[in-house]
Amino acid sequence: MEISPVRILVVDDFEPFRRFVCLMVRQKPEWQIVGQASDGLEAVQKSEDLQPDLIVLDIGLPKLNGIEAARRIRKLHPESKILFLSQETSADIVQETLGLGAVGYVAKPYAGSELLVAMETVCSGGQFIGKGLSSPRFPCPRGS
Question: Using alpha carbons only, how large is the chain's radius of gyration in Å?
């Protein structure tokens, strides 16, 4: 019996960082990048068209920020899991993303060491809060 690949949409306005994320994702043969987007509106449209299993989403996006894009995506395709990958490390912002239904959050400075673990965790049904983001406000310890 063949296992279906995890279909992933990568959203970041900085093209070299999108390439970096895609290179990391390609390390896992069971993961498939089905699309990329460079702004929030494009992310919403592609999530509706492609219906990915996982969306790796930045917050600081042009046209529509990642938080508003996530709100719209949740309404259009609530089955997609959202993992935020952002420079933003404010506890209030992280809490807001989790309140929207995001299942993970990784700070960009830690992407090299945490992104694959975060993706594995959220794909298997867990929640992931990265380094520098854990606090009493986040009930889920890192990687659990």
Answer: 14
Share of the chain above pLDDT 70, in %: 90
- 143 vs 111: CA distance, rounded Å: 13
Write down the pLDDT at residue 141: 41
Residue 68, pLDDT > 50, answer yes
CB under 8 Å to 110, separation ≥6 — which residues?
A: 130, 131, 132
Q: Which two tokens stand for residue 86?
A: 């952002």
Angle subtended at Cα 29 by Cα 24 and Cα 30, rounded to the nearest 5 degrees: 105
Residue 98 belongs to what H/E stretch? helix 91-99
Q: From CA 66, how far away is CA 85, in angstroms rounded?
A: 10
What domains can you pick out in the chain, each with its CATH number? 6-129 (3.40.50.2300)
Rounded CA separation 77/75 (Å): 6
Which pLDDT band, with edges at 50, 70 and 90, does 136 fall under?
very low
63: left (phi over 0), alpha (psi -120 to 50) or beta: left
Residue 2: per-residue pLDDT: 57
Kindly provide the b/e burial profile for residues 63-84, where b requires at least 16 CB atoms within 10 angstroms of the residue's own CB. Answer: ebbbbbbbebbbeebeebbbbb
